[in-house]
Amino acid sequence: MTFPLLSIIVFTPITFGVLLLFFPAENHRAIRVTALIGATIALGASVFAYFSYDQAAAGYQFIEKVPWIPTFGISYHVGVDGMNLPLVLLTGVVMFTGVLISWGIDDRPRDFFAFLFILATGVFGVFASLDLFQLFFFYEIAVFPMYLLIAIWGWKVTREYAAMKLTLYLFVGSVIALIGGLAMYFAAGMNSFDMLELESAGFSTVFQKIWFPFVFFGFAVLGGIFPVHNWSPDGHVAAPTAVSMFHAGVLMKLGAFASLRVGIMLLPEGAKFWAPLILALATVNVVYGAFIASVQTDFKYVIGFSSVSHMGLVLLGFATLNLDGMTGAGIQMFSHGVMTALFFAVVGMVYDRAHTREIPRLGGFAKLMPLVAVAFIIGGLVSMGMPGFSGFIAEFPIFMGLWQTQPIVAIIAAISIVITAGYIMRVVGRVFFGELPAEFEGKITPINNLDRLALVVLAAILILIGVYPSIMAPLVESGAEAVLALVGGA
Amino acid sequence: MAFLQEHILSLILFSPVAGALLVFLVPGDRVRSIRWVAFLASLVPLGLSLWLWFAFDPGMQGYQFVEQAIWYEAINSSYHLGVDGISVPMVLLTTLLTPLAILISWSVEQNVRTYMMLFLMLATGMLGVFMSLDLLLFFVFWEVGLIPMYFLINQWGSENREYASFKFLIYTMAGSLGLLLAIQLIGVAAGTFDLITITQQWSTLSQPLTMLGLPITLSIATVKKIAFWAFVVAFAIKVPVWPFHTWLPDAHTEAPTAGSMILAGVLLKLGAYGFLRLILPLYPVEAKFYAGVLALLATLAIVLGAFAAWGQDDFKRLVAYSSVNHMGFVVLGIAAAAFAQATPLVADGVIAVNGAVLQMFNHGLSAAGMFLLVGVVYDRAHTRDLNKLGGLFPLAPMYGGILIFTAMASLGLPGLNGFVSEFLVVRGAWPVFSFYTALSMLGLLITGAYILKGIAKVLHGPLNEEWVGHEMEINRREILAMAPLMVLMLFIGVWPKWILSVINETVLRLFG
Amino acid sequence: MSFSNFEPATILAILPEILLLGLAIIILLVDLLFKRSEKSFLGWLTAIGLTVILVVTLAYSRPTGEDPLILGGMLRHDWPAYTFNIVLIFAAAITAILSVGIPEIADRGEYFALLVVATMGMNLMAASADLVMLFLAIETTSIPLYILAGFLKGDNKSTESGLKYFLFGAVTSAVMLYGFSLLYGLTGETNIYRLAEAMRVGELSPLLLGGTALLVLVGFAFKISAAPFHFWSPDVYEGAPTPITAFISTASKAAGFAVLIRFMLAVFPAIEAEWTWILAIMATLTMTIGNILALAQTNIKRLLAYSSVAHAGYALIGLVALSTLGTASVVFYLATYILTNLAAFAVVIVFARAAGSEEIANYAGLSRRSPYLSLAFLIAMLSLGGMPPLVGFVAKFYVFAAAVQSGWIWLAFVGVLNAIIGLYYYLTVLKVVYLYRSEEDDNLIPVPRSYAFALALCSLAIILIGTLSAPWFNWAMNAAQSLF
Fold first, then answer.
1. Which domain holds residue C392?
2. What is the reported pTM?
């Protein structure tokens, strides 16, 4: 029995979440500090896992396997490889910064952090899962706290609608995928939900072609694939800051990752058959998302739609089914996660002070909150795929992969880069520069040190990967190789 | 010393960034310290590149001071630096102009710390382009230079800065996009981004690109062709070649003085450098095929640029259009060389490229100087309208002298640097494109016209009474900034061999 | 099979029923001994008595490997019966606890006695192997329930509830009895296992058998409130005393399923193809109607009534699968459903006692008035909605797994789509609880100790069985296997 590192990562949040429930509700300070301790432990453990992963050996590591429901061949089985380890780290980072950013929540903070941590456990659990049932189990755990978090602490105008829309969309997707998972289980006839075993089940081509869309698109709903992306901008906008960070930063990766892990890796023939459709839809995501983002006047909607656009790139990377594209998609999941967390953190800080997110009504915030402005600009540059930042490191291989499969898509998708540059710079110019509207004169308080810490951590990660991609790229590449070994070259 | 020998390029490349961090550590309200720290920090790369200049051995084959380190293994890209005779002058030019530009930015009052940091980062971006021997890295630095420039214009520019900066951004981003796609295609086709490897394998690449699941394949010839056009567009926008130049006058006009200096002095060279470094070696055939078109565009840039400059009433716009005009000569030289490759005219081509590279350097000096001087008068008069200036010579004799000297260098007066390079270009291009060269020489006449117009409107003519009593004279700091430029202008004009010898060896190897 | 076979083992087999009867008598006796004002402990007495019976049953009444048919073939003492016995007694115990402190009920000995007698009837239903016994068991269950539903004599709604329940029950019982008599007439047997044998041997017209099956099915469908025989449930649920609503919606339904499972698996394999389709359609209708009507409800008890209709539909899916896994999934589903629904009703009772309302709108601000009560409600509702790590998720998982295994993929899809509708209205309720505020936000809701105990027990069980379902499901598998 080795040290159960992954279990510690997975269950730390929920343990602290439950612990929080026993605190007196009024003791906000103790609650927050405890939450921060929990988040720090989870972050520390995931950083430790990230750096102690043996890249030379590759493959799944830190494996733990305990029978869970033996009748069905279901086990609690966790392990990480190059594809999901960065996502575990991402979750740790977003959770930690999310707690920092949420320091100011005054309405029932105990419940807030408890739900947030249950959500975090769900997310960690999905990323670490090597068992199909377990993956669904944690996937659903991740979905429902989202509802309450948005509905209770969200933006008053749209929260009810957005929360319900989000939950139902995601639930529909996941249960449809669940049926697909069951079909795989019975078709394999191995009495095992273990994905490593199912990988070698040898499903017939016809079976794969039939079931792939259910599984892939079921999960891809959470990845924000067109035309079922609609929940995501609404959800982002309605959610409170930390939840938006989680939501766009981590949850969308959950969908993308699961559609890779279950869809592409278990049904590779199906993936090959359906790849053109995914390419087409994801291209729409990329370009359409960018266009829509560029006409928004609500600050948060801009970011929300930009997520749709960027997640399209992830799906494009998957659909290339080649090493470059997969590697890029893997890095993009991490990079976009951190970037979008940074974005939403910034939006939250601006909104908390200005009480509006209408871009035309904002302006001049760089003078009052220089660090926030710099953070946003860094996020923007990442978003534009500017070299020197992680976005470039991620997008470049995706495009390389696209050239090898579908150059037209590469060219069309590349248009989005210019559009992105346009809207990001527009937002930067309007919100952070220009004249500070008179109504905000003297009303804008500076951000506190916790906020600063959160921004600096996120921005530093984006730059670090951009400048020194070797800290992540070889790892993800090894994961992508494992995926391709299943898909069979290409 | 060995360390210096092995890592000189990295040191030059990253010392500005280190300087930027240092600036960041100075409290934001201690403006004076910030300026000095930034200035002193910018002297470090200058010193190092002077060392580089003297340590550089023109006679040696290939790239020197090569460094290579793991960077982005997953897609076979590495941190690979090296310089040859074309890039060394550019490195020197960049490191020279940076401290001068910082010196001239003493008048910036607002957000000095950010300004200085951006400036230093800008230097790193430009230096990286000149040093990269890896296509991906090349692109990285290409883009890194863009963003600080955008903010410099957007934040410290004059009235119309929003529009100008946005236009600058979109134009160059669109260009970069082409570059990006081209680099990706080449990377996919060659399986590496290493420029040296690619150059060696280039002609033997034959594996067509297959599209997954589709019976279509992209032949390697098509790949090359797509990449070629993407490169051309990207570099042409940056140079800028007519008709891709429209972002330039706006950007120049609105940028702060130091920004304009760097923009005209170095950024424009990136495009020309791209032509020399990538297009000509990789695409001799295509380059030759389209050389005529390129020469035509260059001629148009020279002639129309000159006419446009003549027509301006804004001093800064005038200088901006003069950049279009002067960069036209660079392109003309490149076009001539492209055409002359593997023909009996090859010797003329080499002369033309020598001229083009030297013109890049020279224009860097003179354009930076001109913008600096425009900045000086704008700083005092708060207008750049030529009709409102006039007769300033008596008020500012020193300034007048410097302006005339610099303008003459820009004009191509024999004995000053501009003459040498333009002469070389024209001499080299004449046997290749006689007609275009002849037209360009007509353009030179117009050049004379607009330069003289500028001088006349500013220095001579009736004195606008408004300026009497104002301090119009150039100050010592500004003279200090101008001095190295003027010395070099004269020095190259009189004795160009010191720099041409460096350029020529490399050019001979590449194109001879 | 004469009485000469009567052995101690037989006593052990029917020990739970005997003890239940004894408990009912004790309760009545105790009831006589105390003054009305002193009888509030009756609920606890019942609960403790039931718990003791539960322990005894677990310890001594485990089925042996011998011939399960006992008492001349009247009962079949096997794993399914045993499993249901335990679940039903547990449900009754929780119901007894929930009845503590409720005015008009808590101090009435006959109430608890009837409850225990109904439980005994249900136990017999689960074990019945003979048509006569089955009918008797069903009536033993139903008649006390009719009375219990109308127990609040002063309350018109309760009276209406009792009467309605009685009328519907009587009609469907009659139809079912008619079906029984036809079966007897066709085969000359009353024991359902021999009856099945006779049907296999004798070449009876499938149409005739199908028709007969339908008649019998009516009776069962009434018990499990499957569409289209669900009409009684909302009115009865709304009007009956809430603990009884909880009891009817859980235990009574489970007992109905126990009968249905045994009967269908034993009697109708001969006409399998037809009746599985009928059940599949019935499942679809039940789920869909239940869920869609639940959407429009404003009263929490009515909402839970329709939701319980829908849950009968999900459970039917497992039955349709007609496999060991399917049967096991139904057993598991019912057990967990009982647990969850009891928790939900417990919250409803607590709230109604404190706030005097059963309208969903009045739940606004509950999360501020009592965070822990809200949490329990959250757990119960999300478990009903099928969210992990709660038990409702695994239960649905097994049911859908069974459907997919047997090739009923469309039915599985119907199931998941229904689950989404279900989730919607559960979330709507939770939204009111957590999101909305009311003027009485500061008015805390006290949770009596008995309820706190019941809620904590159920909530913990919901989570624990949800996360560690393996042993429980194995039990269900065990039970299912002995039916094949």
1. 270-484
2. 0.86
